[in-house]
Specification:
Elements (H helix, E strand, L loop, with lengths): L15 E8 L13 E5 L5 E9 L3 H15 L9 H22 L1 H16 L2 H22 L2 E10 L2 E7 L3 E7 L4 E6 L9 H8 L5 H7 L11 E2 L26 E7 L4 E7 L1 H11 L5 H15 L6 H19 L8 E9 L26 E4 L2 E3 L5 E4 L29 E3 L17 H13 L8
Parallel strand pairs: 7-12
Antiparallel strand pairs: 1-11, 2-3, 3-4, 4-5, 4-8, 5-9, 6-7, 6-10, 10-11, 12-15, 13-14
Helix pairs in contact: 1-2, 3-4, 7-8, 7-9, 8-9
Length: 460
């Protein structure tokens, strides 16, 4: 029997639903021993969430997950901690986990060095007798040393949100703006070979970024940052396409975001592994709208599911079904054994569950407030909070019947092309939208010209 990780016994945040498993495409999904996330609450009300996407096996990812929980929770953050102290705590946690990973494999790294030296000193007779065994053991060691994970961590502390990530796991914050439009903000940065900042960093190490961009691979992985995978870090010189780098090209340094004040506009938070949103990209073909499409699927499942704890599972099943159908239709062979994780933290899109509530927790019934609705118009922002892409296109046409909307509650001050999403914000038909441009100077000049009798005739 496989021992349960100690993170399974942490006090759970009851406003969170998760699904995490090794997906067998076209077969059954099984989440018993494949859980690679945590969502816990401390005694002072802070909440810690983590999603871990494995590389080359689950063992290293499980070690990284459990060690990350140790670094962040023993001791837990204090209410007295400043924002900068929390940011340092997150940054130091990644450094400590990476160090612990290397220390965990110290013996194996030493054995690898010894075996390679031994292989180089054998004569032909000894190679024929022992060479295969040595090579087999070296292959086995390399398999272990290449294990790692991409990570996203979210911490809610003093009613503020902090996020840290390495790799392509994402954190998305879904919030409404002043006009009750639901928007999606990507809080994390994708550390991939499509990231110009990462390509610049690699070019400064002396690597040919054009070749890397075309190959979409760094050594034995596609991402530019991760925890673990010693093979592509300490032993990177063994890989032809990165061996000339002046320093390790794949790093474990996280991007830190926050603090983000959690006000009433913050509806829900999503932590998602790359294996999930990349399937949406594969099927629907537009990477710029992937976050928007994922959020739309989540909201639809909020409406369909009466059991909040099953929403993440139903979302993944919907994405999986669409992906399998797409592969079958196009005679494609999908990558097998992809690990997928989706964590959703509700803030106020659904009525929140009190953390001390013990009533009917096994089957909590939650539905959005269906008396009101908002428009859905996601925005993806970069790490510096500059606007990268505002998507105004519709997700579904206006005659889509899949959403249970109340037409009388649609915001008529904006175009009617996008679908509605439930919100707790009441609709006020007489409310004026805040102006995007200040025209006061124009009106003042018109008034002066009219008073002086110099107003052109075409201006009324």
């Amino acid at each position: 029997m496989i021992a349960r990780p100690w993170t399974d016994d942490l006090p759970k945040c009851k406003n969170t639903c998760v699904a995490s498993y090794l997906s067998q495409v076209g077969g059954n999904v099984n989440s018993t021993d494949d859980y690679l996330c945590f969502y816990c609450q401390t005694e002072d009300g802070s909440c810690l969430y983590g999603v871990f996407e494995p590389h080359n096996g689950l063992d290293a990812a499980k070690f990284i997950m459990q060690r990350m929980a140790v670094e962040m929770l023993l001791p837990p953050p204090s209410i007295s901690n400043s924002d900068e102290e929390i940011r340092d705590r997150l940054r130091n946690a990644f450094v400590s986990v990476e160090k612990a990973y290397i220390e965990n494999y110290d013996g194996m790294i030493a054995e690898r060095t010894s075996l390679q030296y031994r292989l180089q000193t054998l004569n032909e007779t000894q190679i024929s007798q022992n060479g295969d065994n040595i090579l087999s053991r070296l292959k086995e060691i390399d398999q272990h040393l290449s294990g790692g994970a991409t990570v996203v961590i979210a911490l809610v502390h003093n009613n503020k949100l902090f996020v840290a990530n390495v790799g392509e796991t994402r954190a998305l914050l879904c919030r409404t703006d002043d006009n009750a439009v639901l928007r999606v903000v990507q809080l994390t940065v994708d550390h991939s070979l499509n990231n110009e900042d990462e390509l610049l960093r690699l070019s400064q190490l002396g690597l040919d970024v054009n070749k890397l961009r075309n190959a979409q691979y760094l050594g034995n992985q596609s991402g530019t940052r991760c925890l673990g995978n010693y093979l592509v870090k300490g032993l990177y010189k063994a890989f032809p396409n990165i061996g000339t780098a002046a320093a390790e090209p794949v790093v474990a340094s996280p991007e830190i975001h926050g603090p983000i004040v959690l006000d009433e506009s913050c509806r829900f938070l999503v932590l998602v592994s790359g294996g999930v949103y990349k399937r949406i990209q594969e099927v629907r073909g537009c990477s710029e709208q992937t976050n928007k499409q994922l959020a739309q699927i989540i909201v639809e499942n909020f409406r369909k599911q009466t059991n909040f704890t099953k929403v993440s599972q139903s979302v993944l099943e919907e994405i999986e079904e669409e992906f399998v159908s797409y592969c079958t239709k196009n005679n494609l062979t999908p990558k097998s054994n992809t690990h997928v994780t989706l964590l959703i933290r509700n803030f106020n899109f659904l009525p929140p569950i009190p953390q001390n509530d013990t009533i009917n927790l096994r089957n909590p019934v939650h539905k959005p407030n269906e008396r009101t609705s908002v428009r859905f118009n996601p925005i993806v922002q970069s790490k510096s909070n500059t606007l990268l892409n505002e998507i105004d296109s519709e997700i579904y046409s206006s005659d889509t019947n899949d959403l249970e909307t109340n037409d009388s509650n649609i915001d008529t001050n904006r175009s009617n092309e996008s679908s509605d999403i439930s919100s707790c914000r009441p609709y006020d038909r007489d409310k004026r939208i805040k102006g995007y441009v200040d025209f006061s100077c124009y009106y003042e000049n018109v008034a002066k010209a009219r008073k002086n009798g110099t107003l052109p005739g075409f201006i009324k």
